[in-house]
Design goal:
Layout (H helix, E strand, L loop, with lengths): L7 H8 L19 E8 L2 E8 H5 L7 E6 L4 E6 L4 E3 L18 E2 L1 H11 L8 H32 L1
Parallel strand pairs: 1-6
Antiparallel strand pairs: 1-2, 2-3, 3-4, 4-5
């Protein structure tokens, strides 16, 4: 599979995403957008790339993290480019750059439609991240239920 790279439109959005710095020393710098999301479907696998303003504005084109979803097998896995390793962590456990608010993610319309189709939810533009995280949570819940059913069936066989 090819690596998901940022589009020219995404780079343009990142260049215009100027951080807001608070007046007080304890206030942190925050980006109005901060996170940009791009999705593509390839060989029945949905790739969702999470890009960040500070990386794109510095000339980078690769995502910090890519989530791969196999809808047929009801599973997902991620690749963290910073750690250069595969991970099964959910989105809320990934370390993001400072000043990024996850609920303010930007996404193009084509990617939004792919994500909506994948997570089977009518997510709004400002709820993309939360919709993907909720999908991951549902996959984990179904996996736990299947695992527990298997254990229970084995236990029933032993007891009978």
């Amino acid at each position: 599979m090819k690596i998901l790279e940022a589009t020219d439109e995404m780079v343009q959005v990142a260049e215009n995403d100027v951080p807001i710095i608070g007046n007080m020393p304890y206030e942190k710098m925050t980006y109005p957008v901060g996170m940009l999301i791009r999705a593509e479907e390839e060989e029945n696998i949905v790739k969702i790339g999470f890009f960040f303003t500070e990386i794109l504005a510095a000339g980078g084109r690769r995502p910090l993290y890519t989530l791969f979803i196999d809808k047929k097998k009801d599973c997902f896995i991620g690749y963290d480019y910073r750690l250069k390793s595969w991970t099964n962590k959910m989105l809320d456990k990934i370390e993001y750059p400072n000043g990024v608010k996850k609920h303010d993610a930007w996404c193009d319309l084509k990617s939004l439609e792919i994500i909506r189709k994948t997570v089977e939810e009518n997510c709004k533009e400002n709820e993309i991240y939360d919709s993907i995280w909720e999908f991951e949570e549902q996959v984990r819940r179904r996996t736990r239920i299947q695992k527990n059913r298997k254990i229970t069936r084995e236990w029933d066989k032993v007891m009978n």
